[in-house]
Amino acid sequence: MPIPSLKGIYQQYKADTDLVAEWLAVTAKTHGYAATATPSTTNPPAAVGGRLKGKARKMAKNQASNQPKKPTTTTSEASAGVDGSGTASKKPTYLIKIKEFEPLAQFVSKVNDVKIPKYFSIALERVIQVRKSFSDRLTSSGVELNAASNDRHSFFVGVLEKVRHHLKPLMGAVSFSVDAKADARSRGLDDNFFSPLEVYYTSAEFENSPDAAIPAPSTDVKYVAEQGDSALDILFAYIALLDDYRRLRSEIKTLWADYASGKLDLAAVSVATNMAFELARNIEEEVDPLFSKLDGGAYVANLYFARICSAFGIDIHEDKQRGDPYNLKAYDLADVCMMNPMTMLISYLQSTQRDEMHLQSYNGSFGWYDEKLGGSGTTNRQKWKQDMTAMLEILPDVSFLAWKLGASSIVDELTRGMAYMMNEPNKTAPLWLCWAFQIYLDILQSLGPDCDRGYRELQQESLKIKHSMLEIPVSNKERSRVLSAATRWDKDPIWAARKLVSDAGLFPNEIAPEFKFLRRNPLHCGLLIHNMRSALHSSGGPYLAGPGALVGVTQLYHALRQEKMLADSLVWEDLEDLWKMQGNPSFFVGDLPTNREAYFKNYCLSIGTSVTNWAAEKRKGKLKINAANRRNLKFMGYLTLATNHRLEHPGERVPWSSAAVENALNEGILKQYTDSRDHIQPEFKDKVEEARVENARLLPPGLIRKLAQGLQAELPGIRFNLFTMHHEAWRFLERLSEGYAGILGAGVLSNKPDELPFAAGLPLAVAAGQMSPQGDKKTEPSDALLVLAAGVLRKFLQEGQGRAVKEAMTKTLQQRDVEGLKYVSKDPWGVEKLSQLSLY
Are residue 603 and residue 752 in the same domain, yes or no? Predict the structure, then answer.
């Protein structure tokens, strides 16, 4: 099992070396060794349109001054994820130098009755094998190594082998099989340079025994191993990072293939992909201090790329044409090393002024991306041109969103990463951002001519949400919040801003068609859909629960079914769907009632009142309701709302680690089986625990897929329109109140929110003998109102009134269907303000 919270390969490797150091130090110190640990003190193509000039440059600078300043990290966010688990470690940390490993091992080997745990043996053997095989693999593949660097690398391997030799009599047998003699020229890059790292994926068989589990630290001191920083150590860290990215990329491709085939929802796949970007950033931050020894990750990447090209017999400077960043014979090697998006991103950042990025536009000087070709290019030159042109066209659009960070309803990681670059002009592009753009290219090219499918889905989702708001009062604040999300992209702000500048004669370039950004970016469309659904659900909950009508309606519906007053074929589909998703505790107290007295008693308890409040002599005004005792609906979709919160947050923040994603998954499964009273259902406790164990074993690719699956499982609850459900129940109560007039007399209940909900309780009160249908003080039980309610509900359902929510989900809408919607968005992007700026 991967070490908890440290599921990146280099993170696991580093944790292994720290574990070996800590066990040796703690064990030796416990038996009288004089500790010598010291405190640790560790941490090509041409420009995309060129520089703006004259009026355009002045306009850009004026607008740049309005850009939000770099946000500061809040205390709560800064503490989250500091050590990968969400909390900052306060233990004093001591460094165990490499030269101390052997003396510690010698001392421990002579201590009587010392039992070496299996987790120590696994960690030690794994570190030896991965370092030794890595060096051997590079040498056998023809990669030139610096002699001094190789000596320092081999020295640590030798020290660890001596530790193993001293402790071997006390250790059980642990072995790994790593083939270090493959020929790089006859096998692919994946089979060679990444193979030594397989020990972190194939060693589970050694970790299933009880003594393989890593116990919680038993001391108040943290020991860490001295880490090498030679060129070979840095190269090892880079390849470990590449392998993490390679595996994540493979999983993301599979997720998008599942979307293309209809197996997974666009929003679920998009959120999982965006979360993979966060994981990639988190993993890179672990090795970034090493990269800084060689001028950063981009320098390391270029150095490694040149070396593997040489090992494969390719001169990267030969056969280059205009716009080629390298010899395109090496395209496949460059693809693995992220060189293609890195080349374009760095070129863009170097050739474009930070204060002008938001108004830049690609001029087509290298051609245009071919949607029909997609990723089907047969030659390396075709593939490179598709990569290059797609990047040249998307980068200015992402820069615009980074400039308008506070105006967006969501901030995806591509935009967030670009915002960092715009705010820190001297910082080079991080590897995780280059990799994220590579994933964008994979998604775009895999969908080919169908790349605008996401935009079409976004349009439909927006129309459906708008349509459901037609009957909501214009003054309702929940309505406003939902429509703010659903209408944010009614107009294309990128196109509008550029057209304004173009009309002023400041841009010589052709303006791209409206909504080109969304048509080319199904990932962003999926995130927008996710945000709209989350807004609909989180706002619909208070709107539905406020009047308290649904609890009473559900109680009455149950009583009518229990008493066989409705035909089995006559079902209130929407109500039953919501009831099933919410569970009985959202509507009932205890077990479901089965007789007239129990119906009424449960109804009173569920709405937060007493049975005695219904007595004729006490019924002189409104019923006394104790809101604390009322049944409450629960929000459905913990994962959905939690991930949406991160998308909505515009400020700088620590990226989610594997541990944070794992915790979110665990909380999501817990919430799934927790009722509205925050009680976990006893029959599901084992299932929740099994899920926790399973999640703990997942590496980053598995976590991403599990996240997508979790979001997919939450879709029915998140997409269920609670606004529509409220109005469906309200219409039934209105009909029911009208039906009472013939028995109870006119005006028994008004249609006001504080009175109409009690219409569902009257039949139950009369049937239980707590209220007379004639209104006098005699309270003999009577089914008169139950029979009336059954008739009203029967007709209501026969008219198809009980499935409005379900039908709306599958209905295809047109723009004309929402023409009556009253909602005016007041320039949410601030584009109109551009016209107010001085152009001179």
Answer: yes
